Amino acid sequence: MYSVTGNKDAVLTLMRDTVDELGHPPAETTSKHRARDRSVSVPAPSSAQRELARSMWSPALQKMESQHSKARGQRSVAATTSPDVEERAVGTPFAPRDQHIAVFQSAMDEYLEQIGVAPDAGAIAAPQGRTRTAGTDESRGASLDDFYNEKADPGQRPRGAERAFDLLVKYGKLDPHWVDVVVEKAQVLARGKHPFVSHQSGSDFRFAMDNQATVAIVGDWGGGNAAAQAVAAQIRNLNPDHVIHLGDVYYSGTPKEVEERFLRYWPAPHAPGRSFALNSNHEMYSGGYGYFDLTLRTFGQPASYFSLSNDHWRLIGLDTGYDEHDLHPPQAEWLGQQLSGGAKNILLSHHQLFSAYERTDASRLRAKVAPVLPQIYGWIWGHEHLAVVYDKHDGINAICLGNGCFPYDLPRARPAVPIKWIDDRKSDDVFYPGQHTFALLRLDGPRIDLEFVDEGGNVVHREQWPPLG
CA-based angle 439:274:338, to the nearest 5? Predict the structure, then answer.
């Protein structure tokens, strides 16, 4: 992945120029710049295709401009409204919870790869003013000027982060191939969501596990970066019986991102009942096609919700991504049919029921689960790029586990909901301010020992369900 893609100012500048370019008539001739190998000519996008793309990115640009104004303390319509409910708890590289912006970032990464710029090693995105590079061209890295035409003398154009964060300088028209990529991605947005896969009976989507079993759970892990690979290595070393991902493949879960940033590094066998993945907002930003057509098929997982149970415990995975922070209608009915018997129930989802650090609207999700909440022993979710163990709240034992790979800073605010533990260790690596963690559940009859393990293999916290005493 590329540091320039995770810099908000760079994304804003490129989106401004792209929307402006799409508003002009298309070139009448073809261009070798449009071909990925730069050796053949391809037709320019039509006026209708360009207008579709412009209609997709313009609202996202307006949103970013509004946020930019608020950040600078300027008066604007947005500045008079209340803050977005879905605010992130911590300052991170730019990964907004916005479908159009996320797909735009996916387009940026894809374009840079196609023109042969080496991905940044390690971090998904470096802090502002810093870049990390890989490959043979260590001095270069990706920068904003890569998206502009090649008519200017490269020796006269600044490279790297110096250019990426300069909002005042423009090099002229955008590279025609970038226009092709961003127009193509507009088609992704236009086709809508992948069809939802629903149960036919309450016994569908059930899997069995042994009474003595190990389950690794990791969230927000689909980046394919150094942290994701290190976490995967530790999971692989433990060789758990089951591995579950709580969702998020960056930036928008396109089939290409699913293949190269998720499935390529997945640390468990691709076998039914061994590997599971939950749906999320980032997977759905591109319509969920990468998730439903690739991830589920590869894992032999029949749907985006499931039950994994033994005589004592039942792990129930829910899809809160298809409908943002909600349950698509068939699930609530199915969930109620899973809870009979003596096993304790643990819900798994991407989105949270509550948060200690974010302003989050879980009202739709809460309304769906309210009838069964007294029957829920625990709930493990991701979405926030943190690892947090809560004190018992709303009658449940809750864990946030969303720091699987994405760089994040630790929250500064005091928790609004009482917590028992947070992984607040700082990293020595400036590109990874916080540590990255997954959980290993050791199920032994009626007891679960939970170990929180970091990318170095260190057990940094332990819990027991039910607690002793």
Answer: 85
Domain of residue 286, CATH code: 3.60.21.10
Residue 383 CB-half CA count within 13 A: 32
Q: In the numeric block, which tokens belong to residue 204? A: 């569908």
Q: 20: domain range?
A: 3-190
Cα separation, 399 vs 352, whole angstroms: 9
The string of DSSP codes covering 337-378 is TS--SS-EEEEEESS-S--SSS----HHHHHHHGGGGGGEEE
Pair 179, 238 in one domain: no
pLDDT averaged over consecutive 10-residue blocks of the chain (469 residues)?
Answer: 86 93 71 51 80 92 82 45 60 80 93 84 40 36 81 43 39 80 91 96 97 98 94 98 98 95 95 96 96 98 98 98 97 97 97 95 97 98 97 97 93 94 87 89 98 97 91
Return the amino acid letter for 274.
Answer: R
DSSP per position, 64-131: HHHHHHHHTT---TGGGSPPPSS--SS--SS--S-HHHHHHHHHHHHHHHHTTPPPPSS-SSPPTT--
Distance CA 240, CA 254 (A): 28
